[in-house]
Amino acid sequence: MHTSSIHWFTVAAMLLAVIGAAQAADNSKPTDAQLIASAMRAAPKRVAKDATIIAMGADGQMRTLRKGSNDFTCMPDNPATPGPDSMCMDKNATEWVNAYMAHKTPPAGKLGLMYMLEGGTDASNTDPYAKKPDGNNHWIKTGPHFMIVGADPAFYANYPKSPNPDTAVPYVMWAGTPYEHLMAPIK
User: Fold this and answer.
1) Which UniProt keywords apply (predicted)?
2) CA–CA dist 128, 124 (Å, integer)
3) Residues contacting residue 102 through CB under 8 Å, at least 6 positions apart
C-alpha cells in the first residue's frame, strides 16, 4: 500500500473516532453542575440562588444536588421529555406536587407558588394525567409562567376555565379537578 494512502486512512480513522467520542459525550447524562444550572433557570435568580436543588436519579429516586437555605426546591429540565420542564416550588407547592404524583388529594389550606420561567412541556388543560393529545383532552402550549396551587376554589372563580384557554393571560388549568391551579404567563 502506498504511504500516502496509509496516512489518509489513519487520519480518517482518527477523525471518525473523535466524532464518535463527541457524539457519545453529547448523549451522556448531564453533570450535577448542568442539572443545577438547569434547575436554577426555573425561578428568579434571587429565589433560585438559595433554593435546594433536587434531581431524579437513574433509580427513579430523588437525590439532593445542593441543600438550600430558603423554602424553595428546584428541579432541572427532564432530558427525557421534549421541551423545558425545569421548575421551582415553595414548600406548600412541593406538597401539592407530591399529592398529584401519588394521585392523592392535595392538602387543604396550603397555598403554594411554583415557577416555570422556561415554560413547560405541552400538556392537557383538562386531564391532569394525559400523556399525549387525543382530540378530547385540550392539549395546550405553555410559555414561561408561574402557578398558584392549592387555593380555595373561590380563588379561581374570576379566572377563565375554558378547556381551550388563551394562554397569554392567566387561566385555570385542570379546572374542576383536585389539581386545578392558576397558570399566570409572564411574557
Assistant:
1) Signal
2) 7
3) none
Host H or E run for residue 7: helix 3-26
Per the CB < 8 A criterion, the answer to whether 47 and 70 are in contact is yes
Distance CA 175, CA 153 (A): 9
- Helical segments of 74-158, H only: 91-101
Return the CA Rg of the chain.
22
Average pLDDT per consecutive 10 residues, the chain (187 residues; last block may be shorter): 37 34 55 94 96 89 94 87 81 95 94 93 88 86 93 94 94 95 93
The pLDDT, as a whole number, for residue 57 is 82
CA distance 116 to 149: 13
Contacts 24+ apart (CB under 8 A), 29-36: 29/58, 29/79, 30/76, 30/79, 32/65, 34/76, 35/65, 35/76, 36/65, 36/66, 36/76
Closest CA to 142 of 181, 169, 160, 110: 169
| pLDDT number for residue 25 | 46
* Phi-psi sector, 59: left (phi>0), alpha (psi -120 to 50), beta: alpha
> What is the predicted pLDDT for the residue at 7?
37
